[in-house]
Design brief:
The chain is built from 6 helices and 10 strands. The protein has helices at residues 2-29, 41-70, 77-108, 111-114, 172-180, 182-193, and strands at residues 127-135, 138-145, 151-156, 165-170, 201-202, 224-227, 249-252, 262-266, 275-278, 282-283. Residues 199-219 are annotated as: Disordered. Keywords: Membrane, Transmembrane, Transmembrane helix. The chain crosses the membrane at residues 6-28, 40-70, 76-101.
Length: 285
């Protein structure tokens, strides 16, 4: 029986080596608590966790081996006592360490509290090409501007020696037509080069994106605004009728944003109906 007991004791101690290794790993990982950067009490808590957790387990394990070696009777239960006692002691140390860290954070805060707020780069015009047509030496490009979602047609301007391509906003119906009909796209591009659609001109890539007018901004009448949605509504959410789906630009009629958050606009061409659009769906430069 003593032989069986000795073999069982040795096997249990060997198995518990994994438990000891796990405690060392847990202690090493506790150093991440210092990411908070809190000084004083929190630093003591981190040190207690890093050292105390593995020390508790190793001490219980070593003590069990010593007692088992010195005992003349059965010893198989010593590894089990070491497992229970070491785990309980390590858990107590961990609880105390985490408590100190939390106390330190409440007292001193973290590094994040003193960091300057993250700076978000301002939105800029970004054009994504979808289709391109070649007309001799000229190229006509169709795509989507990402900051506003507006579709565009891009074509070189001969009065600038063909070195500069201008972007012209188009609505959804025109965009779908031009994607399906190369001739229609090239014809419209020719009109753009002839200066017939200057009211559709869009800023070049990298220009600051259009932003909604503020409620206190005045003297808005006559300004051109980007319509930043395909399906505009007024401030109460009622769909706006009279604007083609995907309209790129509107002309502001009202002098300032209405109390309900809407703004009176119309299509750029004269004689179009005046409608009220939620000011947050418009963009000004």
């Amino acid at each position: 029986m003593h032989t069986v007991d000795a073999v069982a004791t040795i096997l249990l101690f060997v198995i518990l080596l994994g438990w000891v290794g796990l405690s060392v790993y847990a202690g090493a990982m506790s150093v991440t608590l210092s990411d908070s950067g809190a000084p004083g009490v929190a630093a003591l808590g981190v040190l207690l966790a890093v050292v105390g957790i593995p020390a508790s387990v190793v001490t219980a394990y070593a003590a069990a081996i010593v007692y088992a070696w010195r005992t003349d009777g059965y010893t198989f239960y010593y590894p089990l006592i070491a497992l229970a006692g070491g785990t309980a002691l390590a858990a107590s140390v961990a609880a105390a360490a985490f408590g100190l860290v939390r106390l330190g954070l409440r007292m001193h805060g973290t590094d994040a509290d003193g960091r300057p707020p993250a700076v978000t780069a301002p939105a800029v015009y970004t054009f994504e090409r979808v289709r391109e047509y070649r007309d001799g030496d000229l190229f006509t490009e169709l795509g989507v501007e990402r900051s506003t979602g507006r579709r565009y047609l891009r074509t070189p301007m001969p009065q600038r020696d063909g070195e500069y391509r201008e972007y012209h906003g188009i609505d959804l119906g025109m965009y779908e037509l031009f994607c399906a009909d190369r001739g229609a796209a090239l014809a419209f591009a020719g009109q753009c080069r002839a200066g017939e659609h200057e009211d559709r001109w869009m800023p070049p890539p990298g220009a600051p994106a259009a932003t909604p007018p503020s409620a206190d901004r005045k003297h808005l009448a006559g300004k051109r605004a980007v319509l930043r949605t395909d399906h505009p509504t007024d401030a109460s959410g009622v769909p706006v009728l009279g604007l083609p789906v995907g309209t790129a630009f509107v002309r502001i009629v009202g002098n300032r944003v209405d109390p309900d958050g809407s703004l009176a606009v119309r299509l750029p061409k004269d004689g179009s109906a005046v409608v009220s659009v939620d000011a947050d769906q418009l963009g000004l430069h």
